[in-house]
Amino acid sequence: MSKSDRLDASQAKSKAYYIFSFVLVFILAFLFAFPLYWIITGAFKTKQDIMSTTPVWWPSTFTSANFEKLMGSRSAPLFDFKMFGYAITGPTVPAAIRWLVNTVFMSVSSMLLTCLTAAMAGYVLAKKRFWGRGIIFSLIVCAMALPKQVILIPLLREMSSLNLYDTIWAVIFPIVGWPFGVFLLKQFAEGIPTEMVEACRIDGASEWRTFTDVMFPMIKPGVGACAIFTFINSWNDYFMQLIMLTSSKNLTISLGIATMQAENSTDFGLLMAGSALASVPIIIVFLIFQKYFTKGITMGAVKG
Known about the structure:
The protein is mainly alpha-helical. The chain has helices at residues 3-42, 47-50, 65-72, 95-127, 133-144, 152-161, 169-172, 179-190, 194-202, 207-218, 220-235, 238-244, 253-259, 268-303, and strands spanning 75-77, 80-83, 86-89, 92-94.
């Protein structure tokens, strides 16, 4: 076989591989995107389209009845909290808006607190040498394999003793100190040269200054990945929310929609409208942190 024939065969093989990869990626993308498409279109379908024996791929008639039912069935104050003995209550809004605000506040607070504590813990475990460092890290790794259901009763009793039961904080605090977040950011911190930390110490920088001005900017891709993981984990932790929250005004969007269902029937249009509303913050957060998430995953793969 001549050199030109070998080159043509190599190009044909490369083109076939490219076509196969494109088709495979397209199929996977379709499978992942189809549930979101079905939820969004289902939120605007009539009850007849939803309950049709043959699938209705596109709404025959667009309707907002599902969203009107979601927004009009209950009402609640937008916010209410006590400060210095005074109770502050916001304007009355549809309960679904209050549930969405609760869920966003819970997820964002968990994300910020977890990223901060995990970044500091990862920095200490990676760059500081002290007695018991290996034991602490081993306990964190073991905690990653511990199901949350095992510690649910102790968490419930702890939140009750702190008078936090049936508050949003009862769902936020158990997530802070997430073992996987500490493990992830420790791996990123270990990739930072120790000489940089020593140079900061020689220049007289404090530990906090070293962390905020040197370490944190360099592990920002890992923090972005941790932020997305924490936000999604907090948003989707239905079981913890079900145990810790009981009052209607403190429910999350998933719990609130579940309470609107009748005992012997399911309103799929209402479910899809609520799911479509709940998917918006998740998509926004992913789009914001997508660059850091992708970079963090690839850097973690190289370090592994």
